[in-house]
Design brief:
five-stranded parallel sheet, 7 helices, Oxidized Rhodanese, domain 1, 135 residues
Length: 135
């Protein structure tokens, strides 16, 4: 018990990080992929990039040829995505949190190859990859 009292900050950090890991499993987020892995899937397997950010974020710049459906609207537009069930689907948002939730929704709808872009659009632009404002 003395150890816990003397190292309270470390104990709290361990609890919080453990809760975050468990939370991602419960939400059912897709497997994370790096920007490099995502680029290879886009080029080699014609993967769909699904951007689940809000419209204002999307308008500020997005991955070329990506499909935009805000996370809050995803359930309503699921029928539009049915034709992509056989392809890899890379889901992105600003940082990776909303896309993890969207991955869970897609997996529950029967999508088998769902991937969460690690770091989201921030990682994409951070890697020097282009974004576009064209629809």
């Amino acid at each position: 018990m003395d150890f816990v009292q003397q190292n309270m900050m470390w104990v709290i950090a361990a609890i919080v990080s453990g809760a975050m890991v468990i939370s991602s499993f419960i939400r059912g987020g897709g497997k994370g992929v790096s920007v490099t892995e995502a680029t290879l899937m886009i080029n080699r397997e014609d993967a769909l990039v699904l951007d689940v950010r809000e419209s204002g974020e999307w308008s500020g710049g997005h991955i070329a040829n990506s499909r935009h459906i805000a996370l809050g609207q995803l359930a309503k537009h699921m029928s539009e995505l049915e034709k992509y069930k056989g392809k890899p689907v890379i889901v992105c948002c600003a940082s990776g949190n909303r896309s993890s939730s969207a991955c869970g929704t897609l997996k529950r709808a029967g999508f088998e190859r769902v991937f969460n872009l690690n770091g989201g659009i921030g990682a994409w632009t951070g890697a020097g990859l282009p974004i576009t404002v064209k629809n």
